[in-house]
From TrEMBL:
Taxonomic source organism: Aeromonas media
Record's protein name: Lipoprotein
Record keywords: Signal
Signal sequence segment: 1-21
Length: 149
């Protein structure tokens, strides 16, 4: 019984102790410099001002001009010849036109997928991922890349 009581008292005391990930001085330096723990690891200097760090490229990112990573004009091409398979236009509401014909699109696993005729087009939403924007014509057995115009 006393063993359980000791365990309960220990857990209660541990639960009451404040748990801070960073100390107050470090938090003030982050606030003054405009850095975060992540940007500091990327080179943001906590000993500089917000303006100095912003000039070095650390600070608030400019507002995005579009809420969708798919927005814009795209070109699907044959990899061997570079010939255009289709021109694709996507607006900021993810409405898609293939060769000026509106088609329905759906999001699947972070990508925008749409079909026109026998060709399935896929544009990846994460623009850091390269080489995954492409088209496939399973009927003809051909495939190729899609690139932003």
């Amino acid at each position: 019984m006393s063993r359980n009581a000791a365990l309960i008292v220990t857990l209660t005391l541990l639960g009451m102790a404040p748990a801070h990930a960073i100390n107050a001085k470090y938090a003030q330096q982050l606030e003054r410099s405009g850095c975060t723990q992540v940007t500091e690891a990327q080179g943001c200097d906590i000993h500089k001002t917000k303006a100095e760090n912003a000039a070095a490229g650390f600070g608030d990112a400019p507002a995005a001009t579009s809420s969708s990573p798919y927005t814009g004009n795209w070109v699907a091409t044959f990899p061997e010849t570079g010939a255009t398979v289709a021109t694709i236009r996507i607006d900021d509401k993810d409405q898609v036109w293939v060769n000026d014909k509106k088609v329905s699109a759906r999001k699947s696993d972070g990508a925008l997928v749409f079909k026109e005729g026998m060709v399935i087009y896929t544009i990846q939403g994460d623009r850091r991922i390269k080489g995954e924007d492409g088209w496939v014509d399973n009927d003809a057995g051909t495939k190729g890349p899609i690139a932003a115009k």
